[in-house]
Structures are given as structure tokens and as C-alpha cells.
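FORM 7B - TANDEM STRUCTURE REPORT

SECTION 1: FIRST PROTEIN
SEQUENCE AND C-ALPHA CELLS:
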Amino acid sequence: MGQKQMRFTLPDEAACGSVDMSRDEAVLILLQHCQDMKRQETRLRLVSLLLLLSCVALFVFSQFQRTSGASGQTDQQTSAATPSRAYSQQDRECPAADPPTDTQNLRIYLTSNYKPNRIPPLTWNVLFDENSNYNTNTQAIVIPKDGTYLFYLRLTFRCLGQETGFGLLNVLLTKWNPAHPREEDLARALDSVQCRNGVYRTMSVIQLYDLIKGDQVSVSLKNGSELITHSSFGAFLT
């Protein structure tokens, strides 16, 4: 008698293909391990995304607190002032000086939308840059003083134009300093997305770095620049 063979097909997300149930039991164990690793990777990405959102929320809240505090101080000074007629004209001609700000602080947030055939493919638009720490020539964030900085990078990408296979995205976070021009890799991120309509992936990189004044940190795309649909990049002094 011929032995019947049963076939078991894994979901697309597992990316492990079809497996013949008549194979050795060790193969099935390996496939189960593959699924477990995929679930762990999904949880790690969710945690990274939540951490990124927490950092952005903290950044927005700190800016709101700074703005509210400056506005409240100005209102208090205005209500307390009772200039006499003799000095009213002089007060109008000599307004109060703005409160001093830390010109060496770093708070910056950049975004980019991919455009085909653009060189370089990832060009940043400044949404917020407190002390002009973005270098448009090098597409890099310039460190104003020695300290510990939190950098965050988020990329949304997909694969179109193919019915099968996967699109590969390879990203580098690098730094260099005019005083020490040798480029150094800070972080590398590698991910892939299935080439199928409606399938998107998100890559997040969040790291703390000890940097010195003059360091320039930038994003470099080694593979998959055509896959990116939206990206954001930023940093602040901790």
C-alpha cells in the first residue's frame, strides 16, 4: 500500500513556505522555532514603536511646558507694571529684552517623503530645529556640545512592481567629525517586506550615544531607497 502524504501550509507572514508533513520531525521543530522567532520580532518592533511614541510625546510636552511658562511670565510682568505718564513713552520705545535661551541645546525633528529619481533619495525637511543644528549640505544633525543624545529614526516602506519575492531595506546611522574625518557607523538596521499590494513595514531605531561637539550624525541608505514611503529622524540632548 502507498502511504498518503499530508501537506501543511504556513501563513505568508512566516515566510517559511510549504512543508511536507512526511519529512523528518526535526524539520517541523525548526519551523515552529521560525514562527516563535517571528512572533518575538513582532513584539520587539511593537515595543520599539511604543518607546518612539513615548519619546515624541515627551518632546512635545516639554515644548508645551516651555511655551506655557514663557507666556505666563510675560502676562504676570504686564499685569504688575504700572508705568507713570512721564515714563510711558520711554517704555514704549524700549521694550523688555527676551529671556535668555540655551543656544547649545539640541532639539530637532526632521521628516522626508520619497520622490523617485531624486538625488539623494532621502532629503530631510526641518519641522523643528531649536538652534539650527541641521546641516543642509551634509544632510546631518550637528552636535553643539559634548553630551549624551537620544536619536530616533523611523522608516515606513513597501515593495511594489513585483508579484513575488521580498524587498530589502538596509540603513546605516553614521557619524563623522571635521576634526576626525574618519566616518564611524553608529547603528545598522536591516529588514524586508513582502512584495504584495497593501503590505507595509515599519523600521524603528532608537539609541543613546555619547557624542562630542562637532560630530555630525546622518542616515545612509545602502539598499532599498526606492521602498521608502515616509521617514522621520530626530534627536535631543538628555
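SECTION 2: SECOND PROTEIN
SEQUENCE AND C-ALPHA CELLS:
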Amino acid sequence: MNAPTQRQQTIKINKLIKANENLLKEVEFLKDQLKWSRIVSAQEAELKNACFFYLTHKGLYTEWYNWHSRRTTERILDEIKKTFK
């Protein structure tokens, strides 16, 4: 007499239906998030490209690159000096 009754089966089916509906809602939500993350990622790449082209057009990229390289070299030399002290 371990067979589930009709009521127990109905309750179990209703729980599974509810769980399925919740999973479908979550899948839709995640699809929407993925869509927006792709849009944001594309916009970020566009912005980076636009900034890079602006800097190169104005001749500022070379100045920045030289400053950045010099600053990086100074940091490395400072670290080397600290290790020998």
C-alpha cells in the first residue's frame, strides 16, 4: 500500500509544474541579461576605439605612450633599487 494516492500525485505534479515555470522565468531573465551584457560590451569596445582614434588623431597617444613607458621604467628601477638596499 505504498502507492501514492491520486491527491499525492496531483500535488507532486503541481509542484513540478511550478518548479518548471520558475526555471523558465529564470532562463528568460538570464537571456535578457546576456543580451544586455553583449550590448554593453560592444559599446565599451566602440568607446575604447573612439578614444584611441581621437588620441592618435590629435597626436596625444604618442605623448601618453612615452609618458607611460617612462613611468613604467621608473617604477621598475625603483623596485630594483629597493631590493638592493
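SECTION 3: OBSERVATIONS ON SECOND PROTEIN
Residues 6-84 form one domain.
The chain has a mean pLDDT of 89.

SECTION 4: SIGNATURE
Preparer initials: ____
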